[in-house]
Amino acid sequence: MQKSVVLAEKPSVARDIARVLKCGKKGNGFIEGDKYIVTWALGHLVTLAEPESYGEQYKTWNLDELPMLPGNLKLVVMKQTSKQFHAVKAQLQRKDVKEVIIATDAGREGELVARWILAKAHVNKPLKRLWISSVTDRAIKEGFQKLKDSSAYEGLYHSAVARAEADWYVGINGTRALTTKYHAQLSCGRVQTPTLAMIAKREKDIQTFKPVPFHEITVHTKKGIAFNWIDQKTSEKRIFNLEKAPKLKEQILKEIVTITDLKTTRKKTPAPSLYDLTELQREANKLFGFSAKETLSVLQRLYEQHKVLTYPRTDSKYLSSDMVETLTERIKACDIQPFRKIVSQLKGIKPTKQLSCVNDQKVTDHHAIIPTEQAPSPSALSEKETKIYRLVVRRFLAVFFDAYEYDQTTITATAAGEKLVAKGERMAELGWKVAYHDDATGNKMDDSESHLSEVKIGEELKLSDVKVISSQTQPPARLTEGTLLAAMERPMAYLDSENKQLADTLGKTGGIGTVATRADIIEKLENTHLIEKRDKFLHLTKKGKQLLELVPADLQSPALTAEWELKLEQIASGKLSKELFVKEMKQYAGDIVQSIKQSEKTFKHDNVTGSPCPECGKLLLEVNSKHGKRRVCQDPTCGYKKNVSKVTNARCPQCKKKLELWGEGEGQTFACVCGHREKMSTFQKRRKENQNKKVSKREVSNYMKKQKKEEEFTNTALADALAKLKKE
């Protein structure tokens, strides 16, 4: 019997698909059934070859050999996952296999994972595509009932290849040129460099900001209404002429406040849009301090492992009309604590295509992130998973309620010929805010009221006080991961010129990078020590500042990167040839190398030690990594490196932070940031003593029970009497 190979992106998804397709026979890297063989990648199994595979001259880094522009880039099997590649290849090449069903993640990168495996395995069998947004059993069954022809995704594949090749040509040439020219480990890229430049621009804006003092005047009446002074010509509250405010105060104090106008307007605020990935990452960073990468990892688990949320790598905040019939079941799946009260108010509603969140024109590859028809079991989710899941559920439930309505009252008055205004709000209909009313995460929507006493036009109010409030203009806030994600999505404010066309381009492309790559870009900037996080704010390092002085200016522009992203979208839709785009990128890579070669600028290390490299004699650099400190030769062509300390799981006896282990052999020493130090021998002695003091869980349990009884019966005479009664 002829069979179909189903190629999934990860083992967990493969197992789910195999179960739904009733495949039960396990093999080496696959699960087989009567009709299907389900196999899997481990992310990318195949990638673009390293430079050295294109010639001996590229094995050593040499500025004279650049630019490096091979005609066709080669594919290679990744060493660390080669075993799984060969397991997949064996299934793909079986004679009883008639077709291949691509079931990798439904997106540009997922398409590339599968197509590169097929290309490297030299498989030319008919292809079909499983395109689903959640991995519940129902979604998988429905997806297999309407498999799509792979030709519909040919453009997406070409776009993915173009992106990968562009990053190779620009990134590798730029990085090698910078590193060899300045003898420092420097890297650049078509997305990471503009992102770094955006952080630098914000830092420059803060440093060059000059605060301007101003005054505001508040007029308090004996009826309890506080008015703000407003400029009659500009409607501005702030007074930058500092001599004017005290004079106005004196004039107003002599007068009575007369009501000249009174307006009450009913206003409506619709429910916030559903989440796309960037918005959710921003919210999680603001509320919980989660990094963009952390949020994406949690979402992946909620999507793949728990199957309670839909595909996370989406840039849409809308749903397609064909999803409307699934919404009732999704609401039902949310009927768990703490959402029971909210869901009970939605019982009996019939979602329609008229919902504000339904818009076919604004859904591209994927719809917004929403709950699936599957509810999580009460104890299945971790603390972080619970936080993210609840954010998504509240947003989802909110869109089914009416708008929040409130009455806004504006009272206009005069005193000494000056205009005074007071505003107040009163809630009329809670609407969608009911979904946030009991939210204890800090994500409560503001529905606070500010009542104003009742007055009539022409009424005169006596003054109780007039205050002049001194303040000054504030610099822009430093970027956090959340605000940087927003800046990457809408980088118009970071353009050097007022070019409307460039702004339009950025608007069309959705900024720089993609929702799927932005978290990785930020993490890479941190790992390469170009930026650092202090508290929650991102700061440019000295290395990052110097790099931007050395990189060609146009590579730093968000506009250039956005134009490239627009071209990648055109390739995906078949409007632009992949070959033309790659040719442009090769030309650009050559221009970057030429610019770096001709530069007369220099780079100065800020982490040089006094120790010479034992290989070449140049002074070593001390660098921080996730696992501790290491010393590396400042000449990348030398390649010498040595670990000098590593972060351990051992805890400091004073502050309980993780200890670092320094030195070698008998001289090894544990050190903590709080100043605590102890030799390895002392540490082992202390640990042995602590282990001897350890008690079993049963002993702890018995002790706690005993403590509880003692707390319950502080009157021992009463306790004894009760004990006798029980015995009788």
From TrEMBL:
Residues 689-700 have a biased composition (Basic and acidic residues). It is an enzyme of class 5 (isomerase). Its EC number is 5.6.2.1. Residues 187-192 are annotated as: Interaction with DNA. InterPro entries: Topo_IA, Topo_IA_2, Topo_IA_AS, Topo_IA_cen, Topo_IA_cen_sub1, Topo_IA_cen_sub2, Topo_IA_cen_sub3, Topo_IA_core_domain. The record marks 61, 168, 176, 313 as: Interaction with DNA. PROSITE patterns: TOPO_IA_1 (PS00396), TOPO_IA_2 (PS52039), TOPRIM (PS50880). Residues 3-136 form the Toprim domain. Keywords: DNA-binding, Isomerase, Magnesium, Metal-binding, Topoisomerase. SMART domains: TOP1Ac, TOP1Bc, TOPRIM. GO terms for biological process: DNA recombination; DNA repair; DNA topological change. SUPFAM superfamilies: Prokaryotic type I DNA topoisomerase (SSF56712). GO terms for cellular component: cytoplasmic replication fork. Its cofactor is Mg(2+). Mg(2+) binds at residues 9, 105. The keyword Ribonucleoprotein does not apply. The active site is at residue 311. It catalyses: ATP-independent breakage of single-stranded DNA, followed by passage and rejoining. Residues 685-708 are annotated as: Disordered. GO terms for molecular function: DNA binding; DNA topoisomerase type I (single strand cut, ATP-independent) activity; magnesium ion binding. Residues 153-593 form the Topo IA-type catalytic domain. Releases the supercoiling and torsional tension of DNA, which is introduced during the DNA replication and transcription, by transiently cleaving and rejoining one strand of the DNA duplex. Introduces a single-strand break via transesterification at a target site in duplex DNA. The scissile phosphodiester is attacked by the catalytic tyrosine of the enzyme, resulting in the formation of a DNA-(5'-phosphotyrosyl)-enzyme intermediate and the expulsion of a 3'-OH DNA strand. The free DNA strand then undergoes passage around the unbroken strand, thus removing DNA supercoils. Belongs to the type IA topoisomerase family. This is DNA topoisomerase 3. It comes from Halalkalibacter krulwichiae. The gene is topB_2.
